Amino acid sequence: MTGDLTVISGPSGVGKGTVVHALASEHPEVWISVSATTRPPRPGEEDGVDYFFVSEAEFDELIASDGLLEWALVHGSARYGTPRAAVMAAVAAGRRVILEIELQGARQVRVRLPGARYIFLAPPDDLTLGDRLRGRGTETEEQVQRRLRTAAEELAAAGEFDHVVVNDDLGQAVAELVELLGL
Asked: Least CB-packed of 54, 69, 132, 180 within 10 Å?
């Protein structure tokens, strides 16, 4: 690997996207991978910017052609994956690359790219995580409960990561990432 690859993972609702976007706005030299997903766009999300929104058949083709660095079925409802070519091109070009992905994907990337840096983003507590999930207004209470059950399993895996950053305060979380990434 020529560039610097960092995987940032954590439970749904912990603020991965918010923290990573805040980091990128302060440090535009960081390249953020855009994941592919089979779920429909949420209000305000743009194809190719927030995610590549693809059909189930298109996702199957990406898997079959080894076009994904990692992929997973998340919360039993949609598949997410990281397009391989763009990430490898950015790394080869010497860029600082961040993958913002779920735990299953982080585990797959660790097998394929063991030299990467792995950071787990944790909530300050379970109550805050539930409030954040509900505050998005994008899931039913049943879906929130399913995500919270999954989060409990994900939080137990924090020890698999090189570093844990608690997202209690956005500015502090970004500052910790800046330090860990040596920006």
From this structure: 180
